[in-house]
Every structure is written in C-alpha cells, then in structure tokens.
Amino acid sequence: MAARLTVVISQASIRDGRAADLEESLVTRLMLTSGMDATLVGPLEHLEPNSTDFLCLSSFGQAIALLSWLDREQVAHHWQRLGLEGEVFELGEHGQPRAEGAKRVYHLPLTAGTGVETAVEQLETLLKDRNVKTVGIAVPPNGASSASTEPDNPISSARPTAVPQAKVPPAGAQLEKPPATAERAPSASQDSLADDEEWAELDRLVDDFEALDL
Predict the structure, then answer these.
(1) Residue span of the structural domain in which 81 resides
(2) Residue 106 per-residue DSSP state
C-alpha cells in the first residue's frame, strides 16, 4: 500500500485577503492531489493545549508536512511549548532526529510570494521519497548473507549430491576371496552324455558275457 502524506496548513495570525486566498488554494489543490491529506488549523502561535487544533496535531502518529507563516525556529519553539511529539526539519533537510525513532515534522514556510504549484511539487517530492522503502539484509555470524541476489532456482540452488568413491585397499593388504557360490545343477546336455556312457558300458558287459564259453 502506497504511503500517504498528511499536510497541515497553519493560518496566518494576521488575517488578510492574500494569506486567506493562498491557504484556501493550497487546501483545495492538495485535496485533488493523489496521496495527500490536507488539514487546516489556526495560527500555531495561538494554539493552546487541549484546544481542538492541538488535539488534531497530537493525533498524527506519523511524519507530517507543516506549512506555516513562521520560520523553522519559531515552529520548533511552539512545537516544544505545546509538548507535541516530533522534531521540526526544514522541508528538503536530510538531518537525523536527535531522538531515535522521533516523528519528523517537515516545515515549509509560507510567504506572500509562495506559489501553489511550487509548494505542491515540493510536497509531492517528499511523498515520493517516503514511498521508497529500504529492505534490511540480516547477515549471519559467519559473514554469509542470508539474502541472495540470484533468482529462485531449485536446480541451481540445490547442493550437489556426494558420489561415493570406491575404497582402494592399502598396499600389501590381502584381498579376501569372494564367497563360494553353490554348484550349479548339471545341464541337460551333461545328463545326456552320462546316459550314453552307461549304455556303452552295458553293451560291453553283454559282449563279454556272450564271449564266455559255458
């Protein structure tokens, strides 16, 4: 989901037509700008704790952009006076908050010569910068990165399977004889040869018997 930017416009303490026209034009233009949420509050220097505008400012739990007719130092003073959460930075300033995790308040000063489109362009740049998200990469203790820049590939990422190697006996070792295999039964050709020899033996016995003179 794309980030949105809350823009708070603080009115001028001295009311005049030009200041009112600029404030109204900014609110109207921001309402028509994608990703912007515009809110109009009274003069920052006139706000008091527990006022409606104070409760509105204290309800924002994320970074906001503040457009006012004061300079950054004056805004920071009143922000601290009201006990509001966050640290005030000039819009476009890239400093780090003194308190870790402190909410940022991006201030854009308004003047009689401020152009509506110029101010909106600066706010759109801030919104684009906030939409850029960074991803942390956890590094295991052994120094190997847990994130991979290679595409997911089950073939390339699989570990090679170890091929078992044949064991070579050391020099001088006696090779064991393979176990003796059972004698195979005589084949049909061997049985036929044995029968022929038996018949030949019988023939010789018959001849010897007839040769006897009884």
Answers:
(1) 5-131
(2) E
Question: Is residue 185 domain-resident?
Answer: no
Work out how many domains the chain is built from and give that number.
Answer: 1
Residue 201, both tokens:
């033996």
CATH code of residue 30: 3.40.50
- Asked if residue 19 belongs to a domain, the reply is yes
Asked, for residue 48, whether it belongs to a domain, the answer is yes
Q: Tens digit of pLDDT for each residue in 90-146?
A: 987 755 555 566 789 999 999 999 999 999 999 999 999 877 654 444 555 554 444
44, burial (CB in 10 Å: exposed 0-12, middle 13-18, buried 19+): buried
Q: Are 70 and 44 contacting, i.e. CB atoms less than 8 angstroms apart? A: yes
Report field, pTM of the whole predicted structure over 0.85? no
Residue 128 phi/psi, 5-degree rounding, is: -65, -40
C-alpha–C-alpha distance, residues 78 and 80, integer Å: 5
Instruction: Report the C-alpha dihedral over residues 121, 125, 128, 129, rounded to 10 degrees.
Output: -170
Contact predicate 10/42, CB 8 Å = yes
Cα dihedral angle (4, 135, 92, 59), rounded to 10 degrees? 40
Residue 203 lies in a domain: no
Name residues whose C-beta falls within 8 Å of residue 25's C-beta, 6 or more positions apart in sequence: 116
The angle subtended at Cα 167 by Cα 163 and Cα 173, nearest 5°, is 175
